[in-house]
Design a protein that fits this description.
The complex is a heterodimer of chains A (151) and B (422). Chain A has helices at 2-8, 11-18, 66-79, 84-99, 104-108, 127-142, and strands at residues 31-37, 42-51, 54-63, 147-149. Chain A is an alpha+beta fold and 151 residues long. Chain B has 15 helices and 17 strands. Chain B has a 7-stranded mixed sheet, sandwiched between helices. The longest helix of chain B is centred in the N-terminal third of the chain and has 21 residues, at 76-96. The chains are: A alpha+beta (151), B alpha/beta (422). Chain A binds chain B through residues 1-2, 4-6, 8-9, 14, 17, 39-42, 63-67, 123, 125-126, 129, and chain B through 36, 358-362, 365-366, 369-370, 376-378, 382, 385, 391-392, 416, 419-421.
């Protein structure tokens, strides 16, 4: 029973849920967006500081389930030092990983800690939890109206 | 009074035999399945109920041997389908103890019925300055149709608040019922909290001021004997799929004289007597509210569902579910980190709860891994969530086929949740 639960709720996810990294607001941000999941009422905001086209700082605020909180936290960790193009590419790879659209092993390779989310694709109802922060990131990177929903 | 007591004693005597839940479960084929090699524990009955074989057989029989369009065919098959459809209307009348069969309008469900009442009965009667009185515990389906009405008419919505137990603040109800109140719409039983509202008392108070009342009975009919004559409400709406019948069908009970006054809401075939481009003569009540080919199979299936629950008896069901609720309440009180939301003195078998520091969706996923189906989210009652300061809850809603063993499985599952997030 415990093993089943741990397929999704791996230690890294539980750790980032309990102690989220970069959970704050960058007051003078170059890019920002707000995301909302109307299914569960979860909301997240992402703020980004740029140095040229490199992400020098990224933070999130919001409340949600363990999957969405850990996903936001791990996302911020994995983005620092990436260029805007690399960040967008990472979004695509993460999206492919959790939706199961691409081969997991291939996708998970080189994704570091983000690979802990490979189990999410077995839980279709939870994919939106894992992608909320990432969709919000994408909106911030594209600098559109800055509001996204997972619906 | 003595007659009432006598009948209650007789009713109790009738249910002295232990409620044979094992036998009842055999009637529900879906309950035999396993999820991840564990028996399905279905605790999402407030969202939709499972169907007994009798209802499934009725649908098969209809489509396999009885299907034809109703009301105007002269051939045998159409006459038979019409008989079955109208027999279901008589079954709904009996089930609700309505005084006339013409008072039963088939709809696609509770939502459809409430929209019908809002648009056909209330809309012509309200204007700016008038008030519609709702309660804080309403399902969105008994909020949004009234918001649409207010946008159309300039009327405003007033809301009866709930207390910390999730009960209506009745003194506030009486204060909010004023000369400006033109209509009252209240749920019989709260889907998010389980609270059973004193609807007869509320109807009497509204009627003293000449105000009509709609009761949203979506969660009432699966759990309680409902007598619309005793409640004296003007409108009572419910859905087939929440009372062990098919989806996509429901019924509205309305007092005959009100239906007579109401204009049709939707135009189309079957709701007319004659049509010409100079003018159309509408059909009689209730047909003038049933435009287009209705959900014939659904209506007949609903009739079969009402037969099924009536054979068990709503009093016996309420008594058994009361014992399930007592068991669940006892079990939950011993669970650490679990807080029950909705602790009304009068409550149906619904357990809404939160687990400290664990989001309801995480609770739901871990329970699912043990084959336990619960609902997580706002239950289409966001004002209730706001009242209790939570974004969402976990809800286990019980039906008469659930068992104390399933409640114990839920408790085991919750201990697993707590262990994962320790």
């Amino acid at each position: 029973m415990m093993n089943d639960s741990m397929e999704l709720y791996q230690d890294v996810i539980l750790d980032h849920n309990k102690s989220p990294r970069n959970q704050r607001r960058i007051e003078v941000a170059d890019r920002k967006a707000v995301g909302y999941n109307p299914l569960c009422g979860d909301h997240v905001s992402v703020t980004i500081k740029l140095d040229g086209d490199v992400v020098s700082d990224v933070a999130f605020e919001g409340s949600g389930c363990a999957i969405s909180t850990a996903s936001a936290s791990l996302m911020t960790e994995s983005l620092k030092g990436k260029t805007l193009e690399e960040a967008k590419h990472l979004f695509e790879r993460f999206h492919g990983l959790v939706t199961g659209e691409t081969e997991q092993l291939e996708e998970a390779e080189g994704m570091g800690k983000l690979a802990v989310f490979s189990g999410v694709c077995n839980y279709p109802a939870r994919v939106k939890c894992a992608t909320l922060a990432w969709h919000t990131l994408k909106a911030a990177l594209e600098n559109d109206d800055g509001k996204v929903t997972t619906e | 009074m003595s007659e009432v007591n006598a009948s209650m004693v007789a009713g109790q005597r009738g249910t002295v035999e232990p409620f044979d839940v094992a036998r009842i479960r055999e009637d529900f084929p879906i309950l035999r399945q396993t999820v991840r090699d564990k028996p399905l524990v279905y605790l999402d009955n407030a969202a939709t109920t499972q169907k007994p074989q009798a209802v499934i057989d009725t649908l098969l029989q209809y489509y396999g041997a009885q299907n034809a369009n109703i009301h105007r065919g002269v051939y045998r098959l159409s006459v038979k389908a019409t008989e079955l459809y109208e027999e279901a209307r008589r079954k709904v009348r009996r089930f609700l103890n309505a005084s006339r069969v013409e008072e039963i309008v088939f709809t696609s469900g509770t939502t459809d019925a409430i929209n019908l009442v809002a648009q056909s009965y209330v809309r012509p009667r309200v204007s700016r300055g008038d008030e519609i009185l709702l309660t804080e515990m309403e399902h969105h389906s008994n909020i949004v149709p009234w918001q649409l009405l207010c946008e159309q008419t300039g009327a405003t919505i007033r809301v009866v608040p709930i207390n910390e137990a999730g009960e209506l603040e009745m003194n506030r109800f009486h204060e909010l019922l004023t000369d400006r109140t033109k209509f009252v719409a209240i749920s019989h039983v709260s889907n998010a909290l389980g609270t059973i509202n004193p609807v007869a008392e509320m109807v009497a108070a509204a009627h003293e001021r000449g105000v009509s009342v709609l009761v949203d009975g979506a969660q009432g009919v699966p759990h309680l004997p409902v007598d619309v004559t005793a409640i004296d409400c003007d409108f009572y709406a419910f859905s087939g799929h929440k009372v062990f019948g098919p989806t996509g069908v429901g019924a509205l009970h309305a007092k005959y004289e009100l239906l007579e006054e109401m204009p049709p809401w939707r135009g189309g075939g079957d709701m007319i007597k004659s049509v010409s481009f100079d003018g159309t003569v509408y059909n009689d009540v209730p047909y003038k509210f049933e435009a287009g080919t209705p959900n014939i199979a659904g209506v007949i299936g609903l009739g079969a569902a009402l037969d099924y629950v009536s054979a068990i008896g709503l009093s016996a069901i309420a008594e058994y579910e009361g014992r399930l609720l007592d068991h669940a309440t006892r079990v939950f009180s011993s669970l650490p980190h679990v807080r029950v939301i909705g602790t009304a003195a009068e409550k149906a078998s619904v357990m809404s709860f939160v687990v400290d520091d664990v989001h309801p969706h995480d609770v739901g996923t871990i329970l699912d891994q043990q084959g336990i189906a619960v609902r997580t989210g706002h239950h289409c009652a966001q004002p209730v969530m706001t009242h209790f300061g939570v974004p969402a809850t976990v809800r286990a809603s019980l039906a008469f086929y659930n068992t104390t063993a399933e409640i114990d499985a839920l408790a085991t599952g919750l201990n697993e949740v707590i262990a994962v997030f320790e």
